[in-house]
């Protein structure tokens, strides 16, 4: 090809490029707009990055298979970085509204960040393709005297006080409404489990069964605003047919009261569980459920910079694993981690800690008999349906203070824990078990650099009591009496 020919071709290409660039096809950019023009939509998002340093979370300086905690991002040990990323939309139209939040919550590492691991790989511990999805959703339509709602946003019966009975983001369909200016109500059908047994095993394993792995909850919550106080009775019926774990029919009756009277903020809750259950092995052995729980706290705002508080939490425990009574209080899902007084996201007690037998969010010890491998009585609830009917219960006495100095805020608290009864654990282990579980100290400092970014530091220390040594020392060559330490740096963006 001659040099003259190449020049002609180059000239033609430049000419065509200029023509295309000036044509209507490229002259105007496209636009994106709402298909429905009669709604208002807001776009929002957040990022929590929590570098976390952990030491002796099994209360043992030697290596054990319990030296980890579990949070929403998965297992954490030694040093881990939790990363919770969210984007979402809030929409409002005439008589209806919606909320959609997409979330990825994972341990920060290359496999998760690159989203490159397949779902069979042992390093697939968080954010791969299947893990970023709709975390919370709520749609409502208001008919006037009542509204209909559905989704899987966080719903709670008692999150304003002790969070003893239920708070979680299970799917629901329900109704809500108001009567006058002071009375509101909400009724929900909650689907905790809805599975078909043998569906994933093939017909050769056995017939399909749509009943054995079901767990539904029906709830009703009433709230009356009585001057500065809110009085809120509630009821829940837990139809728990998750046969491998329990076969329980449980009624929860309770009430919470909260408000601010001058400088004093009281929070009170009482809950009672009653019902019956059959054993998971279908032998026909039945158990009667009867258990009590209570919570009370008081905050006093002496000054915005200094708000001291004190509180007590009680959950009944079972004292005899060999009788046909279950006296251990098992919640549907305890939500203590996000309650207003002693709640703290990065406290130690609100994680799954195998040595303590705590559930995520709960702060009780209802998983302990199973974690120790000695449970023999079926439970009737708890996160993932893993609470034990042999749970020892708890008594928590705590005090603390919180406040703000301009953009700097703090919260410091001490909580002492005991078993309500250690008799059941003694029977199961065949030796004496002390009731002193231990003491936790939490200190949270946070500085708000602006409306969209804050930096915090949360130190959590748990000093185990004699009960931990009595329960676990026979399993290890060394004593389980080391102080657990956890330091979490909180980097938070919101927009």
Provide the domain count. 1
Order of helices and strands: HHEEEEEHEEEEEEEEEEEEEHEEHEEHE
Reading off the top of the CATH hierarchy, the class is best stated as: Mainly Beta
Q: Describe the global form.
A: globular
Q: Which terms summarize this structure?
A:
mainly beta; signal; two-stranded antiparallel ribbon; Porin; globular; Alginate_Permeability_Chnl; Alginate export domain-containing protein; 18-stranded antiparallel beta barrel
Describe this protein's structure.
- The chain is mostly beta strands and 495 residues long.
- The chain has one domain (38-494): Porin, CATH 2.40.160.100.
- It has 6 helices and 23 strands.
- The strands form 3 sheets. It has an 18-stranded antiparallel β-barrel. A two-stranded antiparallel ribbon has the order 2-3.
- The protein starts with a helix and ends with a strand.
What is the strand and helix layout of this fold?
Elements: H1 3-21, H2 24-27, E1 40-55, E2 69-71, E3 74-76, E4 79-93, E5 96-107, H3 110-114, E6 133-142, E7 147-151, E8 155-156, E9 167-168, E10 172-179, E11 183-197, E12 209-226, E13 229-242, E14 247-259, E15 264-278, E16 286-300, E17 307-315, E18 325-326, H4 368-371, E19 394-405, E20 408-418, H5 423-429, E21 436-450, E22 453-464, H6 466-472, E23 484-494
Parallel strand pairs: 16-18
Antiparallel strand pairs: 1-4, 1-23, 2-3, 4-5, 5-6, 6-7, 7-10, 8-9, 10-11, 11-12, 12-13, 13-14, 14-15, 15-16, 16-17, 17-19, 19-20, 20-21, 21-22, 22-23
InterPro entries: Alginate_Permeability_Chnl (IPR053728)
Keywords: Signal
Organism: Desulfococcus multivorans DSM 2059
């Amino acid at each position: 090809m001659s040099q003259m020919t190449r020049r002609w071709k180059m000239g033609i290409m430049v000419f065509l490029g200029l023509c295309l660039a000036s044509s209507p096809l490229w002259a105007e950019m496209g636009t994106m707009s709402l298909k429905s023009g009669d709604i208002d939509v807001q776009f929002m998002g957040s990022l929590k990055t929590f570098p976390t340093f952990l030491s002796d979370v099994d209360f043992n300086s030697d290596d054990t298979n319990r030296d980890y905690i579990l949070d929403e991002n998965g297992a954490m040990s030694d040093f881990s970085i939790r990363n919770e990323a969210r984007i979402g939309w809030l929409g409002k139209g005439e008589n209806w509204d919606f909320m959609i939040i997409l979330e990825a919550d994972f341990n920060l590492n290359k496999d998760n960040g690159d989203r490159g691991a397949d779902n069979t790989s042992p390093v697939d511990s968080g954010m791969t393709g299947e893990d970023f999805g709709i975390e919370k959703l709520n749609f409502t339509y208001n008919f006037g005297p009542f509204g209909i709602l559905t989704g899987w946003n966080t719903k709670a019966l008692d999150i304003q006080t002790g969070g003893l009975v239920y708070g979680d983001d299970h799917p629901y369909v329900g109704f809500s409404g108001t009567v006058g200016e002071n009375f509101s109500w909400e009724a929900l059908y909650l689907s905790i489990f809805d599975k078909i047994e043998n569906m994933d095993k093939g017909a050769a394993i056995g017939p399909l069964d749509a009943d054995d792995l079901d767990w539904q909850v029906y709830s009703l919550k009433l709230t009356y605003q009585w001057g500065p106080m809110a009085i809120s009775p509630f009821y829940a019926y837990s139809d728990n047919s998750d046969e491998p774990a329990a076969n329980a029919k449980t009624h929860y009756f309770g009430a919470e009261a909260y408000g601010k009277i001058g400088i004093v903020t009281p929070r009170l809750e009482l809950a009672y569980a009653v019902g019956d259950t059959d054993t998971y092995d279908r032998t026909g052995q039945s158990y009667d459920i009867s258990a009590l729980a209570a919570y009370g706290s008081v905050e006093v705002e002496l000054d915005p910079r200094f708000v001291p508080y004190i509180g007590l939490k009680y959950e009944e425990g079972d004292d005899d694993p060999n009788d046909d009574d279950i006296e251990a209080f098992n919640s549907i899902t305890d939500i203590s981690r996000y309650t207003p007084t002693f709640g703290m996201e990065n406290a130690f007690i609100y994680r799954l800690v195998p040595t303590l037998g705590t559930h995520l969010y709960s702060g009780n010890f209802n998983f302990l008999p199973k974690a120790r491998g000695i449970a023999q009585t079926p439970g009737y609830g708890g996160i993932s349906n893993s609470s034990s009917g042999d749970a020892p219960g708890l008594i928590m006495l705590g005090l603390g203070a919180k406040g703000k100095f301009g953009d700097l805020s703090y919260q410091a608290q001490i909580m002492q824990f005991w078993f309500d009864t250690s008799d059941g654990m003694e029977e199961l282990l065949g030796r004496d078990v002390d009731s002193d579980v231990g003491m936790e100290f939490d200190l949270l400092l946070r500085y708000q650099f602006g409306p969209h970014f804050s930096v915090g530091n949360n130190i959590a220390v748990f000093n185990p009591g004699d009960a931990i040594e009595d329960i676990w020392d026979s399993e290890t060559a060394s004593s389980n009496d080391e102080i657990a330490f956890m330091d979490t740096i909180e980097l938070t963006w919101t927009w």
